[in-house]
Amino acid sequence: MRSVGSSAHGLRVAARAIAAGQVLAYPTEAVYGLGCDPMNAAAVRRILRFKGRGEDKGLILIAAELAALEPYVTSLEPARMSEIAATWPGPNTWLLPARSTTPRWLTGVHDTLAVRVTGHPIASALCRAWGGAVVSTSANLSNRQPARTALRVRLQLDAGPDLIVSGACGGDARPSTIRDGRSGRMLRV
């Protein structure tokens, strides 16, 4: 596992790693995330193997702005989208209807996709450097505590990511909330 900082140079290295099909660990609002190019099935499946997690659950995509998520999800009626947009950027993940072209390795068995416009400066800068959305799932083995430092990523996922983007996680004590975009119902607090 290599490490880079969150400088402009480090983020360019990370973006090239994503383009090359590699898996990254990077800080988010509360925990380190594992990420890759959402359209690279092999990279996504590597993340699922690292975590010991099945493909049926689906994953979260993060982005620096809503436009980067539009290739994967469809909008809801304007009033619902206004409510959702008012929570971004920030640690609020919403389930939105997945486009028919969104791969099953992202949605799992669902007709929705979990998406978030991140408010974390490093995660947001990573998405901008990459030029789009990035897979974001907690950097941990299934049913274990998520890593909150680069060292914890290394200790828990010894056969894990190709690259770690070092930096501090945000101050949130818990991973992002997850809500159903259609109803607003809270699914994870």
Name the CATH homologous superfamily. DHBP synthase
Fraction of residues in H or I helices = 25-40%
- Alpha-carbon Rg, integer: 15 Å
Q: Which ranges are low-confidence, i.e. pLDDT below 50, for 5 or more consecutive residues?
A: none
Taken from the alpha-carbon principal axes, the silhouette is globular
CATH class: Alpha Beta
User: How many individual domains?
Assistant: 1
Count of beta strands: 10
Strand content: 15-25%
> What is the annotated CATH architecture?
Alpha-Beta Complex
* Contiguous helical run count: 6
Strand arrangement, major sheet: 1-8-2-3-7-4-6-5-9-10
Helix-strand string: EHEEHEHEHEHEHEEE
The major sheet is characterized as: 10 strands, mixed
The residue-averaged pLDDT reads 94
Decide which structural class fits the backbone.
alpha/beta
For the termini, the CA-CA separation is 32 Å
Annotated CATH topology: DHBP synthase
Multimerization status: single chain
Task: Sum this structure up briefly.
By secondary structure, this protein is α/β, with parallel strands linked by helices. It has six helices and ten strands, in the order βαββαβαβαβαβαβββ. The protein has a single domain, classed as DHBP synthase, CATH 3.90.870.
Task: Give a verbal description of the structure.
This protein has one domain: DHBP synthase (Alpha-Beta Complex). It is about 30% helix and about 20% strand. The protein has a ten-stranded mixed sheet with strand order 1-8-2-3-7-4-6-5-9-10. The protein is globular and about 45 Å long. The protein starts with a strand and ends with a strand. The mean pLDDT is about 95.
